[in-house]
Amino acid sequence: MTKTFAMSRPAGCRHPFSHRSPDPMNPRTSAIAAAIATVLAMSTHAPAHAQAQAASVVADAAAGTVIGRVKESTRGVYLDGARVTLNGYQAITQRDGGFRITGVAPGRYTLQVDYIGYETQDVEVVVGESRGATVEVTLRSTVAVGDAADLDRVNVRGSRDAQALALNQQRTSVNYMNVVSADLLGQFPDNNIAESTQRIPGVSIERDQGEGRYVTVRGAPKEFTTVSIDGVQLANPDSTTRGVELDTIPSDVIAALEVTKAITPDMDGDAIAGNINIRTQSALDRDGMTLRASAAMGRFELGDGDNERYNATIGNRFGADGNIGVLFSGSHSRQGRFTDNVETIYTRFDDGRIMPTTVEIKDYEGTRTRTGITGRFDFRIDPGNLVYLVASDARFKDREFRDNLIIEMDQHTADSTQTIGNVRATFDKELRERTYDKTIRTYNFGGEHFVGDDWRFDWQASQSKATKETTPRDQYIFRSTVRPRMDYDYTDYDFPTWTIQGRPDAPATGVNLPEEWFGFRRLNQRYEYGEETEKGFRVDAERSQSFLGDSGTVKFGLRARLRDKSFDDERRRNGNAADFAALGITMSDMLCSDLGPSNNFDYFLAGRRFCRDIFNRYAGPLQASANHQRLVPDSITGDYSASEDVHAGYVRFDANWDKLTMVAGLRYERTSTEGNATSYLVPENEDPIITPQSSSRDYGNLLPSVHLRYEMTPDSIFRASYSTAINRPDFMQTAPYTLFNEEDSEVSQGNPDVREAYAHSLDVSYERYLRPLGLVSVAAFYKRINDPLFIATRDTTLDDYGDVQLIRAENGEKGRVQGVELAWQQTFDFLPAPFDGLGIYTNYTYADSSAELPFGEGSTMLPGTSRTNYNVALAYDKYGLNARLAYNHRSKFIQSFDIDSPELDVYWGDRSSLDFTISYALTRNFRLFGEVNNITDTRQVRFQGERSRVLELEGFGRSWLAGVRYEF
């Protein structure tokens, strides 16, 4: 028997109401969430209080109410996450810098605003019998204050201001999160959102040809993490997984990334590992006009391909009070990427020997273009009412040519081993042209409304639509008519050698084979189209409460998510040699000398490469022939459609006792699914039977959570949380399709009865925020997962098919993920000049996982779990110069596993990268910048069981980029 398996609220929202505490320094209890943290107590500098004239107070608010906004002094950017206290009343500013304190008795008060990285501000406020007060507070960066002698020439440091924005949001957030602002992300040379997330503690990425694509949080499978834009979950263009392909979204069109690792009751429940929220920019985030633009060009070392990137953002405030904001942001990049790739597949034979059976030498040449557009409209009707409309469009187009020489090895001699042996070799030479076009479009219409002193209502209607179209996907394959004996030598397992025996016309070593050996085998044509649409609706209500704790709020709401998904796969083939002979050419006529030979890693020589226009020149007659036939089983059994409707309701309680805040609540989600597919059965000596199949399932989940936040001091915070979440099966796992591969006696099926995984999570953390600007933290996490999902392969007997290998989704019994995160970031302003421009950004994550396989077949690590991940970035930011050297490391992780032969489990090997970025301010508005990626020319390796069995060696070289940036 053979069995193998493979795993298949916007964050940062804060309470709108003030809280009363006997301790005037106790932050507005927004606290919660869980896990992660901060260790080490470092010396802090007591903040000096700025002069009161940096604020304005107007007595025009409603009686008993103090409202206001907080911004920084240089660019007029409003500050999210500032702590505002008013004689025991406390509030936290929102993204537009706004705060609201209600229930204030008439009198004279001192309002204090505290923001890490900025000077604390004290403002005198008078609340009358019939009127409250409106306050505008302006804070100065500690750097600006230090240079106050020449404020007109001060260039406030971009990276430290970016750190301040992120750290203050993280410090004051209701639930635990990691926040990275767009300005700080701009200091790293990242091409897309996936690559940006790898800088965050506990987050790692999976790559495609060296570029980040999927995100893994805390060692859990990529499907355990949800991705949203402004709280709207993204539709997914991938047909086989819920993991969102984040290489679609450029990194230049966002305001911040928010990673929530312990979810609260008002958040969607399908986030076992956490949620990544992409927050868009708003014109109301700052005073006046927003205008930014940049242009950069460079090269990729391998293949000398183009590397271009452009982006622009323009926005402004309108209306008599500047209460209308309109902003547009766009980004475009173009990359000419070349990749060297060599793959060897190892197989266990009946006598126990493990030996190579297939080799593929691949040259990838492609152009990737990435375009993102975001538009946002905000209308603040009055201080208590806001409506907004956000639209975003991200497109990723990848046009690729792949030259491939395939060596099939069989008839191994008796003395052959894994390292040295002799085989019969069969050679295929092919060219594939493939272009796929992915889009993700999201629309979000919503509002925020205060009613009276106690109530707040939020609502949102949204749609996210993703498509992925692959056309053309054409492939010419030529096969050698010569099948010689061949020696192989894998002593150097990264760079093996092959020597053909008994053929005087063969090369002495290597596989630069005579072109006349090859004859036409077939022309393949394929078309794929996938589409997913999610429509979302939610309404939330929140009011202050006094029956639990000294103060607090109660929040409840309803949520609906209606998702539809479909996939269409069409395949055609012409394998008629006479049709090809009618063209009057041979394979040699389709090869081009001016492209240069295939020369992977300057070692693997595979002869001339195919001309890039051979499909336009020679495919037409073959495709018009009657012999160009549809592959019916593949074309209909791979198609499916599915729907998933989720309706949810929740209640959440926030309560405060002096320095302790608790967030507790319960969420219920009801899921209804439907699936449609087609089975294809060919009985012996009978016509095929094509049968439509359908399935449905309804189930519900209760998701309780409790989060505790204890503030030892305003800058020392302990958090603990218990939360629950689910992971629904991928759509294709539950679609009722059946595909029979007669050649291999293999049946692939959907499993409509496979259950969702359910996780219990525990998180604890400690954070120590450092003055003037920094953080040291430690966090521990543990997740127990019931019914983890696997793709299982097992021998069985099925009606109509007989003895087969059945491949379908199955549930294991249980699994776990546990680990620790450490983080330290700090600016060293206290050092003497010029060393006061130094800073450090570093984090380390250890994760361990295991899961019990279906059918009692043992246990394995969860796919995607790297034991160690860490980042170390050294920065310098002074005198207009900003430089950052960033190192990222991810240890090996398992991709798929073989129960019968665990020594053939497939792993991605360790990978490290060193990147550098530098910029210099020419004027207050213009800045030159440059980036270098993969300085150490790191390669990517996959292997089967041990490093000496290299499944894939991939190299993509270094790249660089230089340009100019403008900011108003």
TrEMBL record:
The keyword Heme does not apply. Residues 488-935 form the TonB-dependent receptor-like beta-barrel domain. The keyword Secreted does not apply. It is found in: Cell outer membrane. It is a multi-pass membrane protein. A motif (TonB C-terminal box) lies at residues 951-968. Residues 1-25 are annotated as: Disordered. Keywords: Cell outer membrane, Membrane, Receptor, Signal, TonB box, Transmembrane, Transmembrane beta strand, Transport. InterPro entries: Beta-barrel_TonB, Beta-barrel_TonB_sf, CarboxyPept-like_regulatory, Plug_dom, Plug_dom_sf, TonB-dep_rcpt-like, TonB_rcpt_bac, TonB_rcpt_CS. One of its GO terms (cellular component) is cell outer membrane. Residues 172-274 form the TonB-dependent receptor plug domain. Coiled coil: none annotated. Belongs to the TonB-dependent receptor family. This is TonB-dependent receptor. It comes from Luteimonas aestuarii.
